[in-house]
Model the fold of this input.
Amino acid sequence: MKLWEKKAVPDSRVIEFTSGKDRTTDMCLAEWDIAGSMAHAIMLCEAGLISQDEKRNLLNALHSLFKKWKTGNLTIGEGVEDIHSQIENELVSVLGDTGKKIHTGRSRNDQVLTDIRLFTRKEIDETAKTASRLFYQLLSLSEQYRQVLIPGYTHMQPAMVSSFGLWFGSYAEGIADDILMLSDARTLNNRNPLGSGAGYGSTLPLDRRLTTELLEFEDLLYNSAYAGLNRGKAEFATASAMASLAQTLSRFAMDICMFMTAELRFVDFPDEFVTGSSIMPQKRNPDVFEIIRGKARLIQTLPGQVSALVSGLPSGYNRELQLLKDLIFSGFSELKDCLGITIHMLNHIRITDNVTANPLYNSIFSTEEVNRLVKQGVPFRDAYRMIGEKIGNTSFSPTALSEYTHTGSIGNLCNSEIERIFRSRMLCFVNRSSQDLIDKMISL
Done:
């Protein structure tokens, strides 16, 4: 029986269609539904709506359900609509009338919103932690290969002198900015909707500040109507942060694919990390990075999908909002997979020395020669013309490379400054698990 079911028996096809993937995606919310229900039970007792004994029985039963979930034995029963219904049904089966009191002062709307925010907070923290591993890996590679020169490209043409140190470091700093967007999304998500009901509050004496404290939200979503209206806005911020990190991964993967071409071969990987062809024996394909590039591009479409789904909806709950779950849940899964495999691949990257010794890249030193003349007092436009003429008549040849000393150049990577920014932005990711919250509440 559905929690909302009355006399009429719902049509099975209607239930199947409207439930969508809820029965599978909702298992991601099970631990958080239990944690949210424990906080709600504690609050109901403090508000005088249930007794101390009823609170203790509910907490113990919910704790047992959490253990059941951890062992993989909590499932959504046949005919049960979602995980929220399953947990309530289990409480009722164990506690009878006491179990029926768990939904006092709570709508499935604010219950689901709370679960999603707790889930999203943890996923953001885990994504940031994995991105942090990639950040420090890139920074380490930047330091390790800071002296190894490569051509820097513009318009897909060799342009100026660069280095592996500058290249790796550029993506590290990119992740530092992605982390800033993740932290902003976390802040937006980390507000408590519990107690807002179906969007219009309750006549019961609910203590919303208490559940905020118990679930370690940073603050409340104060306006009950906005608690529901915010659904879609929080997902959009989260999707945008994921898209930003995915864009960094996509461009990095594209660089790797280009750098691995036979014509360039700036980088390479051992044979066991590349794939081949069923017909061409020479092939060494960067399939991992092509898949990263493709998946990352799909993740970049998430903000548009979220926006398209919620734009133009009236205020209050609308059923298509449930479709947001699969978008965001899948996005986190794909993004963390891409981060993980990138880290794994970079543990085995091979860097080519002496790339710029190839005469093909002589012209990338031309700007350096222009600057050398400028230092000698030649006006820039005259120096530019003089070197351009040498390049045009093929008489140009580079001399020794001068030291790049300005901030952020190949001779002054500023990696310590980039790390300082990154470390300060990582401070907000507390990474509290459902186990942490439940262990704290079971003793109250």
Summary: The chain is about 60% helix and 5% strand.
